[in-house]
Amino acid sequence: MDRSPRRIASPVNRTPSFEIAILTSPPLSPHHDLPPIESGSNSPNPPPPPPHSSFSPRRKVHESIVREVREYHMTTRIPFSPPPTIQIHPAPIAGPESTSSFRTNPEQEDRDDEEGNVEETVQEIELPPPEHKEIEVEVLRQSPEEIIPEEDYPRKSESENRLNQQQLETPTDRRIIFPITPFYRRKGTCSKCSIWLGALCAFFFLLSIALFLVWVITTDGFRTIGSKSTNVCNSRQCIDIAFRMSSSIDDDIEPCENFYRHSCQRYHSQTADKQLNFLSQLKDESLRTIHSLLSSEEDPRTLQKSARLSRNLYSACMNAVVRSQNAPTDLLIFVRNFPCGPLLRDCQSFDADSYSWERHSGMLDWYAGDYNLIVYNRDVHPQDRSKLILQIKPPNLDPIVGPIERDLMALAKPSPTEFEPLLQLSLRQNLLSAFARDNLLRDPRDVQSQLDEVARLMVDLYISARQSASLSPNTTYMTIGDMFQVLPQLYLREFFDAQLSNIYKWAESDMLSIQDYDYFARLSDIIAQTSRQAVANYLLTVTIWNLKQYSYSPRDQFGWRECVDQISNLEIARKMYVDKASQSMNLSKTVEFLQNLKIDFLSVHRSTPLQYLSNINRLGFYVGFPRRLQNEELIWRPVSQLSLNETDYFDSSIRVGKAERDYALSQIGTYLDSDDTTEFPITEPTMLYNSNVRAIVIPLAFIEPPIYLPGDEVPMYGIYSSLGITTFQMISKVFWQGLEKNSQLECFDGVFRGFLDANRQRSPSIEPQLLSTIELADAFKTTLYSYAKWQNEHHVHQEKTLPAFDSTDSMRSLMLTFSTMFCSGEGSEPGSDYEAMINTVVADSRMFSIHFNCNNSSRLYNRRSCF
User: Region (Disordered): which ranges (predicted)?
Assistant: First the structure.
């Protein structure tokens, strides 16, 4: 018989099997239960209890439970009928870490762990009896403070124990309630503690979410999680560059065989509207920025007057209902205020004898734009390049005639003798006929002869002005009085007095800048060979062509882009753009970087004779915007006296535009600020070279991603491959325009043709494409030199890599960022001129062959340099 001490479960951690075992086992023995001894005369007396039984924790618990059950049944008034025998099988006493098979509520494990100053509440639980009867036992258990020590109780005889056992037997219809899993409640606490605890948990849960969101927004967040290398650039700009490269590069194409296709094949797999070159991307980004400013819901009362007027003009422009009610009669009524041509239905009293084209042209000015017969503007004095003087120059008809000419060359490929007649015919059929029907409300068949005259004059002016068009046009300086004498056949005094004299009080001794003097000599011959009616109709046509953008037409594309593009040409809107960009832009670092680029260009071309480097050495840079655009008083001054109906977009927009134009001309004779120049189109993403001030103008719209600046969170190769190479390309244009380049043309000709398709290789002349290739190849070579110099000076031979391009070295990353940024729809066809240009550029670089491991049998292996 096992006499080892029995393990006693904690009074707090009782299980159902433990409670039943307490009721059915002898209370005086701490040992295992002995077999029952039958009563009889021959039965020996039971062994005396062990000496340590006088104080037993188990007995204390047992006696407490029995006493509570007895008291409960003595106080009840329900009649006690003889119950059926209830067989309660003793269960082994569970250890402190054991569990019972009768435990049905998982919450008991948590509630049983409560200790200390606790008070039990009554709970009813059903036990599975052997005879499918629900038997429940309920005992109110006393707190530890109320338990009477065992010594205070007299010893009970065996008969009394039997009595207690009988009293526990209950009738069939009476449940036995037993505190199997009591609930505990702390004394002296409120009944809503669980509610407050839940609210506290919810508060901390929401607080943790808020802190997590703050971490994601204010830091790199997930970008730093899982990074395999600490030398990976995870900034937003680097991710944008990596995404562009991943979306363009096709690794299945060997870069040493066709670098452009390797860099741009996936770019060309997109739809045509998605194949935007980087200049189109810059234009789209600037339009979106200005659109966000014009369509902002900011309280108009907090805005400056210029910003408020800009937003009102945008709202009027987007009101298609009102605009459609006034168009196109609003435009036709407006042109009646000027001398007109018989193409206009209301101009039937045209008198050719009294007509003066000089007066007509002088009155139009801004209304005819750059299509006027004589365009006047501002220039700088040759001896003092900060002083403004008057300039006259030829018209620019390329926006009108250029698309017709390109279509003609692509379809008909006319000979030199056929070119002008076919261009005139195409211009009348494909452009002017539809223009007369839609904008002049005339049947083209009724005015066909007049349209032919206009087309002929357009072709003559287009060819005459294009003969001297170049990056640095020929400029002649003379006084206004001298010009009257050398061009007597042109009545320029009448031209000035028509409009300009009211704005600029000129004198014959004032200096005048004449751009392309030969055009004005040819203009007198063209006018002499053209009827006055044709000249008047030409000026009428180009005026309506220039102003029709402000008048609503359901046939033209209309949307927020068109409205923003028109309003962005006004300085009141440009100020909003400048105010937003100036908050996060450090232009001083950019200017310093550009000056270093100029020095590096001079170093690469130091073997060139000095007379060709002098223009580069004196080259300046205007970057971003002039400070005057941040001055609200200066911007508002030109329009301060206007009384506008801001709901009439056509009238308001042309009046504001003309007021700003007149104010700019009124500044002739004054001096420019040090950061300003005569032409600074900050909303146009086009890098300009102003030969008169000998400076490169980089507008604000050009220095947005994907063009990166010093100070941006990108490696330096990202800056050299964007701002660096585009700046070197413009410097190369300035450098090569006055330099002999026949040897370079011959050298590049064979390489360039090798990348063209079979049909294009036999083209007789590809000189324009070769000139662009020379400029870009020179810029690419100089960029690699400048970046390598920067690496040596800063002892940085490997910069941070781009995400997903961990194994790409810095020089190779520079070449890939350049090539993917220069992907263009012009290279969509394999063997195109654009594809051949990019491949020829990299084939002329020895660094490309080294970093891409090109073998001497590959197409792009550098075998010689053309420079």
Answer: 1-63, 76-116, 142-168
Question: Alpha-carbon distance 761 to 473, whole Å?
Answer: 32
Cβ-contact 687, 697 below 8 angstroms: yes
| Same domain flag for 475 and 536 | yes
- Same domain (yes/no): 390, 267: no
Q: Percent helix, strand, coil in the chain (nearest 5)?
A: 50, 5, 40
**pLDDT mean across residues, the chain:** 82
132 and 261 housed in the same domain: no
Averaged over 289-309, what is the pLDDT? Answer: 92
Q: What is the pLDDT of residue 99?
A: 42
- Judge whether 240 lies within some domain: no
Q: How far is CA 302 from CA 199, 297, 306, 308, in A?
A: 42, 11, 12, 9
Q: Does any domain span residue 221?
A: no
Same domain, 271 and 399: no
Size (the chain), residues = 867
pLDDT at 326 over 90: no
Count structural domains, the chain.
3
Relative to beta strand 511-515, strand 388-393 is parallel
Last-in-domain residue among 551, 580, 605: 551
Backbone φ and ψ of 13, nearest 5°: -95, 55
> Hey, how many other C-beta atoms are within 10 angstroms of the C-beta on 691?
16
For residue 142, what pLDDT is reported?
43
Q: How far is CA 261 from CA 247, 274, 750, 773, 812, in A?
A: 13, 17, 20, 17, 16
In a domain, 166, yes or no: yes
Task: Supply the DSSP symbol for 513.
Answer: E
In a domain, 408, yes or no: yes
Please name which of 414, 492, 424 lies closest in space to residue 455, comparing C-alpha atoms.
424
Ranges 9-18, 416-425, 594-603, 669-678: which has the least confidence: 9-18
CB neighbour class for 229 (10 Å; exposed up to 12, middle 13-18, buried from 19):
exposed
Res. 262 pLDDT band, cuts 50 70 90: very high
Domain boundaries, position 524: 328-551
